[in-house]
Amino acid sequence: MPAALSDLLLLQIRRDLMHTFRGTRARRALALVTVALLGLGLTACQSGSASVGLESAESVELPPISELTPAPDPRNIEGPTTALIGGPSIAPVADAPAPELPATVTSHDRSGDTEVTVTDTSRVLALSLSGSLGELVHAYGMSDQLVGRDISTNFPGSEDLPIVTRDGHSIDAEGVLGLSPTVILTDGSIGPTDVVLQMRDAGIPVITVDRAVDAATTFVTAQQVADALGVPESAPPLIDTLQAAISAKEAEVATLLPEDPEKLPRVAFLYVRGTSGIYYLFGEGSGVDSLIRSIGALDVAAEIGWKGEKPMTDEALIAIDPDVILVMTKGLESAGGVDGLLEAQPSIALTTAGKNRRIIDVDDTLLFAGGTRIPDVIDGLARAVYAPDSLQ
């Protein structure tokens, strides 16, 4: 929908509503129509088909790490590998706690903190690019209260929930309003942010929590989600369980590492969207850096002080010369597989990883999932890096 047309239509609707209603009724009705119109505009302006959600969230059974035989030299393994993420290994609480409502919490909006009061958690919508917020709601035993999901939310039973995001990262405002949520949780990774916050003007409490990208931030987010749901006392036990599970998994993975530190694999993560020619190198603070550390490998982006997510340069990639390149599965597919990736980016082909075709792809919905899936992701990455033969 052209911007000028939407502005004219919204102006006419505004006049009609203010003429028909008065005061609060007029503001609420106008907010609802504004959000719906913005959603329609976004839909009309998007190109390409909407992303399709997962058909299932079935668990993957894998043999214990103690039964694996690691490669003698993980720096010289040849051939691509698809990482398999097992679990979920941490089950949600058996008995869902009774929310203590109303709950007044701080929403960490980009424009500044604001107080929001939640009075009803019977219809929850949790939105994040990684799916971590929906997964945390599930972890607290409150998945029955979820009325919709983003495309990345992936826990047993989530496949039955309607998807309210398009192309993975854009909200379908009309779809959200159709679900009549009583509270919306977001970490700001799905937007546009102003459209999400418009829901608050429509009378729906919207709480922005911190974005979980690693274990430390997940613990913070877990508490904020529990607070917003009116179950603050449920967070500490979950955090303790998760901390213990991560430590135990890291200890397991340590048994796969080579005795010679010179044989520790040097790993880089590339965000790839081949159809758009997008290639980003992820560094410190991206979340993948903590995963690389958890499996005992060397983060080559850290060696050059690469922070956050920035476009990859040929010079930088050749200079760090990774032994292993991690990518998301759909990103690799968008580049035409390993052959297409090496052809599109000759600099990758010049690295040790490229020469050995040592590309490891990981499920898009799980790699940055955070939450209680962190131990499972560490487990899957370690198997792919150190014992790929066990996955064949």
Please describe the structure with a list of short key phrases separated by commas or semicolons:
single chain, 392 residues, alpha/beta, seven-stranded mixed β-sheet, three-stranded parallel β-sheet, globular, disordered N terminus
Topology:
Blueprint: H1 3-20, H2 23-45, E1 81-82, E2 103-109, E3 112-118, E4 124-127, H3 132-139, E5 165-166, E6 170-171, H4 173-178, E7 183-186, H5 193-201, E8 206-208, H6 215-228, H7 235-254, E9 266-273, E10 278-282, H8 288-294, E11 298-299, H9 300-303, E12 309-311, H10 314-320, E13 324-328, H11 329-334, H12 337-344, H13 346-349, H14 352-355, E14 359-362, H15 364-367, H16 374-386
Parallel strand pairs: 1-14, 4-7, 7-8, 9-11, 9-13, 13-14
Antiparallel strand pairs: 2-3, 5-6, 9-10, 10-12
Helix pairs in contact: 1-2, 2-5, 6-7, 7-16
Describe this structure in words.
- The chain is of the alpha/beta class and 392 residues long.
- Helix content is 40%, strand content 15%.
- The chain has 16 helices and 14 strands.
- The chain has helices at 3-20, 23-45, 132-139, 173-178, 193-201, 215-228, 235-254, 288-294, 300-303, 314-320, 329-334, 337-344, 346-349, 352-355, 364-367, 374-386; strands at residues 81-82, 103-109, 112-118, 124-127, 165-166, 170-171, 183-186, 206-208, 266-273, 278-282, 298-299, 309-311, 324-328, 359-362.
- The longest helix is centred in the N-terminal third of the chain and has 23 residues, at 23-45.
- The radius of gyration is 23 Å and the shape is globular.
